[in-house]
Design brief:
With 494 residues, the protein is mainly α. The protein is 65% helix and 1% strand. A two-stranded antiparallel ribbon has the order 1-2. Helix 1 packs antiparallel against helix 3, helix 11 packs parallel to helix 15 and helix 18 packs antiparallel against helix 21. The longest helix is centred in the middle third of the chain and has 29 residues.
Length: 494
């Protein structure tokens, strides 16, 4: 007797349409924003406005077509797999179209240089391949600032909505504390983004007014306010912030610090609750680290160079805050301060700011959880029968979160090492390879050495190295795991 077995149902196809729809809308929106720098160049009588018109039409047309082609697949929400793909897809698609003004415009940049500049802008890394910034048309300078400003607010939404939901590197510890988004990712993201936008705009406006009052012209104040609050670091001049008055250095230091704090605390402050802002142990740890670094660096300069002036304090304050927040501005060539500051700056960049801010790199809360886990392990060794658990802000940290944090640390430094080796294979020197990998993965901005240090830029690197650094910037900005998961078989099996 023949037994007829029922046919197994084929696995459902992965539906790309909701992802394509959102990416298409964002690409189209990016094209519309290109009309603003076009207006600046048009008002200035600069023929560069045609570059932005061409780029805007092309970007809006392609983005609109993509959204229309995928609109029939839009449902009530996104699955976890679709959210992972969307998170990476957005940060890959927007730099492609953001690069068009550099290709068509006055820079006549190659494809790799244009994509590098756009990726560095939207990931708020701040590394640049452009020279002669002082004479670039205002439209292109404004576009660089706008990309960083968009990237800054974008990464806050990603960090506060998507990454906690996707359990990336311990970010899930902030899920219950900030916003409950499970099953409502896109609608909830819109609500959160609206609250954050008010604060983001307010900080940008306050920063611009501060710069205006300290001697910047209106255009420089606008662009640098955007890149300061985004902790991006793109400047309008080849010598970065050294072009501005001492007072503007202090103002920039203040606003870089404010931008490196958790924006959820500002949301709560706006709602009338100030206690979480002042009781946040992550903020306490971050500000304490900044204070210690400034003290140590200032002491070094006093001992080594016998410098005890206001300018020395200002240079130390500005550059320490710039590097630890991942902004990447430079007011002085700290490569000339001696070996110790150079080594210290390398590790400072790997600390980063607070979770849920525009700052980059590892983030302070992960170090707090790491040290708490180490402390608990030492206590278990000393007292084997005791019950010791890692704690964060007085609460017990689950093994799931600790495991995520440990995995992040291992993957972060392993990825940095792999990229450093790959960069070395392209012919770069040791210090350029290692610091280049670190500054790209950490989205810091300047590297170390004469070539990519605070007094140089990335223009002289070979094309292979630039493509590698673009990949590293994307991976680092999205906390590594959000990108790497796309290359696993289990992800596509879903």
């Amino acid at each position: 007797m023949t037994v007829v077995r029922p046919l197994s149902k084929p696995a459902p196809m992965f539906d790309f349409r909701p992802v394509g729809y959102v990416i298409g809308l964002l690409v189209a929106a990016l094209g519309v924003t290109m009309l603003l720098p076009m207006g600046f160049d048009l008002a200035a009588g600069n023929g560069e406005w045609q570059t932005f018109l061409k780029s805007a039409v092309l970007t809006t047309f392609i983005g609109g077509l993509m959204a229309l082609a995928c609109v029939n697949g839009v449902g009530e929400g996104l699955s976890i797999q679709q959210t992972f793909l969307l998170t990476t897809g957005v940060w890959l698609a927007l730099p492609i179209f953001g690069a068009l003004p550099f290709i068509f415009g006055a820079t006549n940049a190659s494809v790799v240089d244009a994509f590098f500049e756009a990726m560095s802008g939207l990931t708020t890394t701040g590394s640049t391949v452009l020279t002669g910034l002082d004479i670039l048309p205002q439209g292109l300078l404004l576009w660089r600032g706008m990309m960083q400003w968009f990237g800054g607010i974008g990464i806050i939404v990603v960090a506060m909505v998507f990454l906690p939901e996707l359990r990336i590197g311990g970010m899930q510890i902030f899920r219950t504390e900030s916003f409950d988004t499970m099953g409502k990712i896109l609608p909830r993201a819109t609500e959160i983004a609206s609250r954050i936008s008010v604060i983001y705009l307010g900080l940008t406006g306050a920063c611009m007014l501060a710069y205006l009052s300290l001697g910047m012209n209106r255009f420089d104040a606008l662009v640098h306010a955007m890149t300061t609050i985004a902790t991006g670091g793109f400047a309008n001049y080849d010598n970065s912030f050294a072009a501005f008055s001492p007072g503007s250095h202090y103002a920039a230091s203040l606003f870089m610090l404010l931008a490196a704090l958790p924006f959820v605390r500002y949301v709560q402050l706006l709602a009338g609750t100030a206690k979480p802002l002042f009781r946040d142990t992550q903020i306490h740890a971050f500000l304490s680290v900044v204070l210690i670094l400034i003290t140590v660096m200032l002491g070094w300069r006093l001992i080594r160079d016998d410098i005890a002036t206001e300018s020395a304090f200002r240079e130390v304050l500005f550059n320490v805050v710039s590097v630890i927040s991942g902004t990447g501005y430079a007011s002085d060539n700290y490569m000339l301060w001696g070996t110790f500051p150079v080594v210290l700056f390398f590790f400072v960049g790997l600390i980063g700011g607070c979770a849920g801010s525009t700052a980059c790199s590892v983030k302070v809360f992960r170090y707090q959880i790491l040290f708490s886990a180490i402390k608990a392990q030492i206590q278990r060794i000393h007292s084997p029968h005791g019950m010791f658990s890692p704690r964060y802000e007085g609460r017990k940290v689950s093994e799931d979160v600790v495991g995520s944090v440990m995995a992040f640390f291992i993957l972060f430094f392993l990825t940095m090492g792999v990229f450093a080796v790959l960069l070395g294979l392209t012919g770069l020197s040791f210090i350029t390879s290692v610091s280049g990998a670190a500054t790209a993965i950490g989205n810091i901005g300047p590297g170390l050495g004469s070539e990519i240090g605070p007094a140089g830029n990335f223009a002289g690197l070979n094309n292979t190295a630039k493509w590698l650094l673009c990949a590293a910037m994307l991976i680092g900005r999205l906390e590594l795991l959000a990108v790497f998961v796309l290359f696993t078989r289990q992800f596509w099996r879903g």
